[in-house]
Write a structure and sequence with these properties.
The complex is a heterodimer of chains A (326) and B (397). Chain A starts with a strand and ends with a helix. In chain A, strand 2, helix 2 and strand 3 form a beta-alpha-beta unit. In chain A, strands 3-2-4-5-7-6-12 form a 7-stranded mixed sheet, with helices on both faces. Chain A has a 5-stranded mixed sheet with strand order 9-11-10-13-14, sandwiched between helices. In chain A, strands 1-8 form a two-stranded antiparallel sheet. Chain A has 12 helices and 14 strands. By secondary structure, chain A is of the alpha/beta class. Chain A is globular. Chain B has 397 residues and is of the alpha/beta class. Classes of the chains: A alpha/beta (326), B alpha/beta (397). Chains A and B meet through helix 3, helix 4 and helix 5 of A and helix 9, helix 10 and helix 16 of B.
Chain lengths: 326, 397
C-alpha cells in the first residue's frame, strides 16, 4: 500500500493487522474488540481474519484483562490490551503498577513483559463522565512503564508496531478526538525511534512542546502566531516516558522560550517535569520561565464545559504572548 | 477432643456457614457418609489420614503410596518446617527484616506441591516455602527479599516457580493468563495458583475465577484457608464455605483437610489431571491453620485465643504422618535420626547462607528497570555513579 491517507484509527487498525501477521505470538485482548471491532472500531475486522484465539473478547474486568495479559506474557505471548476508555483503566491500575511495571526488575531481568496497553484518552468528543481523561502522568511516574502517544496517522501506524516489538510494557495513549483525522502513512518508510521527539514545525522565536491531541492545536497556534510575525516551533514529544529532553533542549537553545501544552491538569503534570528539567538544562538560555498550558485541578467537566477546560488556540496564544513579553 | 473443640469453635465463629454447608451440595451427602465411616472431623472435608495417623478411605480420592514415597513426604515436611523455624530465628536475630512463617501449613504445601509435574507452573504468594522446596528452589533464594537484597531473586523459569507476590491475589490472574497460554500452545501442562482465605475477598481472585472458567483454563486454585488474614477471621471474608464459591463461577470446588498431606496430594493430583484433560479449573480449599503469626511483625495473642491454637496443634500435619509411618512400620529409628541430622545441616546451611549473603551492588538500583533501556534511567545512573565516584577515599563502592 506504500503511501496512503488514512484516519488515525484506521492506521492503528492496519498497524495491529501487520503485527498479527508478522508475529504469531501477538494477541489482541479487550472488551468488545472482536465482533464489534472495538467501540472506536480500531480492531475492526481483525477477529474475522485472525480468529477468536488471537483477537480475544474478554470478560468485563479490567484488572483481569491486564492480569491475564501478564500471565500470557510470562508464557511467551505479546498481548496488546485495549482499555475501552481512559477513566476505566483504574480497576487495572494495580496490576499495571504493582505487577506489570516491576516484573522485569523483580526477576532480575530473567523475564520480559512485552505488554502494550492501548488507552483512548482525552476530551473533545462530548462524552459523559470518565470518558475524557488524560491520566498519562500517573503512568509516566511509574518506573518500568513506557508511555507514548501518537498525534497523527503515520505515528499511529509505526509507533504501535514499535510498542508491540518492545520487550517493556508500553502504555499507548490514543488521542481519541483525532481518530477520524486523516493524514499520510507510508507503510514502507523507515520509522523514527519510538521515544524521539519530532519537530512538527520549524520556528525561531518560541517552542511549543505538546503530544497527542494537543499537537494539532499547537500547529494551529503556530500558524496564527505567524500571521502576527512570530516564528513558533512545534515539537511533538511523542513519548512521555522517557521524554526526549535532548530534542527540547536543542529547540530551546534556539528559541529561548518554551511553552508546554497538554490536556491533563497542569498540577503535577508532564509539563511540570519538562519545565523543571529544561530549567536545569537551559537556565542560561531561557529568556522567560517555562510556561504551561493545560487542564485545571478539577474533575474533567461535563461536556458542555469542556471547551472551557481544554486548552484551545486562544489559551495557547496567550501563553505565547506572555512568554515573549518577558 | 479435636472433634469437640472444632465443633465448639464452629458454633461460635462459623455457625451460619456451617448450616449452609450442611444443606448445600449433593456431594455433601456422600461425604457425610464418609465421615460416619471414618469418624472424620468435618463433614465436607476430604481426609485420608486422621489426626491420630489412621489411614481412612474416601470414595473419590484414592491414593496408594510406597513406603519410600511416604517417607519422602515426611522428609519434605520436616525439612520445610526446619527451614521455616530457622528463618524465624534469623528474623529475631536481625538477619531478616521480616518473615512469613508457614508453620502448620506444611501438609497443604507439600501435598499439593508433590502433585505437580516438572512442566507445571506455580504462582505462589509469599508464604509458599514448602512448595518452593518441592520445586527445587534453593531455600536461601527465598530469603533475599526478606533480607532486603532483592524483590524476588530467582529466575521463575528455571523451576517453573514464579516470584513471590505480596499484593494479595494478584498472582491468581497471572496464573490464569499463563494457563490460557498453555491452552493456546496445545500443551498438556497445568498451573497452580496459591492464595489464602483473605485473598478470596479480592476482586482479582474473583476475576481470575471468571476468566479461567470462561476460557476453560487449566489452572488449579489452591486456597490455603489458614483461618486468619492477619487479624481478620474467615467469617470476615465470606458467608459461605470458600470451596463453595467455585460453583457460582461454573467449576468444582472441594475442601480438603489441609493438615493431611495424603489428602492434599490426592485432591490436587485429581484437580491437575482434570485441568490436563481440558476440563478447566478447580478450586481446592485446604482447610488448615497458621500456627504462628501472620508475619514476624504480627502479634496473634491480640486477636485469637490460645485454645484455638492448641486445638489445631492436635491436628499437626507432621505428627500425624509420623504416627502413620510408625504404625505401619514404614520408617525405622535410623530414618528419623538421619532426618534429624539432615535437618540440622539444613538449618546450618540456611543460617550461614543468609549471613554470607552479600548486599547488592549500589548500581543495582538501576538494573533491569527496563529491558530495552530508558533515557532517564541512563541519565540518573550516570549521575549516581559520578556522585559515588566523588567520594575521594573510594569507600563507597
Amino acid at each position: 500500500m506504500a503511501v496512503q491517507k488514512l484516519p488515525l484509527a484506521k492506521a492503528l487498525n492496519e498497524s495491529l493487522r501487520k503485527a498479527l501477521e508478522t508475529d504469531p505470538k501477538v494477541l489482541i485482548m479487550g472488551e468488545d474488540v472482536g465482533k464489534l471491532g472495538g467501540v472506536f472500531r480500531v480492531t475492526d475486522g481483525l477477529q474475522k481474519d485472525f480468529g477468536e484465539d488471537r483477537v480475544i473478547d474478554t470478560p468485563l474486568a479490567e484488572s483481569g484483562i491486564v492480569g491475564t495479559a501478564i500471565g500470557l506474557a510470562l508464557r511467551g505471548y505479546r498481548p496488546v490490551v485495549e482499555i475501552q476508555f481512559d477513566g476505566f483503566v483504574f480497576p487495572a491500575y494495580d496490576q499495571i503498577v504493582t505487577q506489570l511495571a516491576k516484573m522485569h526488575a523483580r526477576a532480575l531481568g530473567k523475564v520480559k513483559m512485552p505488554v502494550v496497553i492501548r488507552i483512548p484518552y482525552g476530551g473533545g468528543i462530548g462524552a459523559v463522565e470518565h470518558h475524557s481523561e488524560s491520566p498519562e502522568a500517573l503512568f509516566a511516574h511509574v518506573a518500568g512503564l513506557k508511555v507514548v502517544s501518537p498525534s497523527n496517522s503515520s505515528d499511529a501506524y509505526w509507533m504501535l508496531q514499535q510498542a508491540i516489538q518492545s520487550d517493556d510494557p508500553v502504555i499507548f495513549f490514543e488521542p481519541k478526538r483525532r481518530y477520524w483525522d486523516k493524514s499520510e502513512v507510508d507503510t514502507e518508510a523507515i520509522p523514527g525511534e519510538l521515544h524521539k521527539a519530532r519537530v512538527a514545525r520549524e520556528g525561531s522565536d518560541l517552542t511549543l512542546a505538546a503530544y497527542g491531541p494537543m499537537v494539532k492545536v499547537c500547529l494551529e497556534a503556530a500558524a496564527a502566531a505567524q500571521e502576527e510575525g512570530k516564528s513558533v516551533e512545534v515539537l511533538d514529544l511523542r513519548s512521555m516516558s522517557p521524554i526526549d529532553f535532548d530534542a527540547i533542549q536543542r529547540s530551546v537553545e534556539k528559541t529561548r522560550h518554551l511553552v508546554v501544552v497538554h490536556e491533563a491538569p497542569v498540577f503535577y503534570g508532564s509539563g511540570a517535569e519538562v519545565a523543571a528539567r529544561i530549567t536545569e538544562r537551559c537556565f542560561y538560555h531561557l529568556e522567560a520561565p517555562v510556561l504551561r498550558v493545560g487542564g485545571y485541578h478539577a474533575p474533567y467537566p461535563p461536556a458542555r464545559l469542556e471547551e472551557e477546560y481544554l486548552p484551545g488556540l486562544d489559551r495557547v496564544l496567550d501563553a505565547v504572548d506572555r512568554s515573549l513579553a518577558y | 477432643m479435636t472433634v469437640e473443640s472444632t465443633a465448639a469453635r464452629k458454633t461460635t465463629r462459623r455457625s451460619s456457614g456451617t448450616k449452609r454447608t450442611a444443606s448445600a451440595s449433593t456431594s455433601t451427602t456422600k461425604k457425610t457418609s464418609t465421615r460416619a465411616e471414618a469418624g472424620a472431623v468435618e463433614p465436607e472435608l476430604v481426609q485420608l489420614l486422621t489426626p491420630e495417623g489412621e489411614r481412612v478411605q474416601h470414595p473419590d480420592y484414592d491414593i496408594d503410596l510406597s513406603a519410600e514415597e511416604l517417607r519422602g513426604l515426611y522428609r519434605d515436611m520436616v525439612l520445610t518446617r526446619r527451614f521455616d523455624a530457622e528463618a524465624t530465628s534469623l528474623q529475631r536475630q536481625g538477619e531478616l527484616g521480616l518473615w512469613a512463617s508457614l508453620l502448620g501449613q506444611e501438609a497443604a504445601q507439600i501435598g499439593s506441591g508433590r502433585a505437580l509435574r516438572d512442566d507445571d507452573y506455580v504462582f505462589p504468594t509469599y508464604r509458599e516455602h514448602g512448595v518452593a522446596w518441592v520445586r527445587g528452589v534453593d531455600p536461601t533464594n527465598l530469603l533475599g527479599m526478606f533480607r532486603g537484597v532483592n524483590h524476588g531473586g530467582w529466575d521463575p523459569n528455571s523451576n517453573n516457580f514464579h516470584l513471590y507476590t505480596i499484593v494479595i491475589g494478584s498472582q491468581t490472574l497471572h496464573a490464569t493468563g499463563y494457563a490460557m497460554g498453555i491452552t493456546k500452545d496445545g500443551a498438556d501442562s497445568a498451573v497452580i495458583a496459591y492464595f489464602g482465605d483473605g485473598a478470596s475477598s479480592q476482586g482479582d481472585v474473583n476475576e481470575a475465577f471468571t476468566f479461567s472458567a470462561v476460557y476453560n483454563a487449566p489452572v488449579v486454585f489452591f486456597c490455603q484457608n489458614n483461618q486468619w488474614a492477619i487479624s481478620e477471621p474467615t467469617e470476615k471474608q465470606t458467608r459461605v464455605p470458600l470451596y463453595q464459591r467455585a460453583r457460582g463461577f461454573g467449576f468444582p470446588g472441594v475442601r480438603v483437610d489441609g493438615n493431611d498431606v495424603l489428602a492434599c496430594l490426592a485432591v490436587t493430583r485429581s484437580a491437575l489431571e482434570r485441568a490436563r484433560r481440558g476440563e478447566g479449573p478447580t478450586l481446592v480449599e485446604a482447610f488448615t491453620y497458621r500456627m504462628g503469626a501472620h508475619t514476624t511483625s504480627d502479634d496473634p495473642t491480640k486477636y485469637r485465643a490460645d485454645e484455638e491454637r492448641e486445638a489445631w496443634e492436635a491436628k499437626d500435619p507432621i505428627l500425624r504422618l509420623k504416627a502413620y509411618l510408625e504404625r505401619e512400620g514404614n520408617a525405622d529409628e535410623a530414618f528419623f535420626e538421619a532426618l534429624e541430622a539432615e535437618s540440622e545441616a539444613l538449618g546450618k546451611r540456611v543460617r550461614e547462607g543468609v549471613r554470607n549473603m552479600p548486599d547488592p551492588d549500589h548500581m543495582a538500583i538501576f538494573e533491569n528497570v527496563y529491558a530495552d533501556g530508558h533515557a532517564l534511567v541512563d541519565e540518573e545512573r550516570a549521575q549516581f555513579a559520578a556522585y559515588q565516584a566523588s567520594f575521594a577515599d573510594g569507600e563507597v563502592k
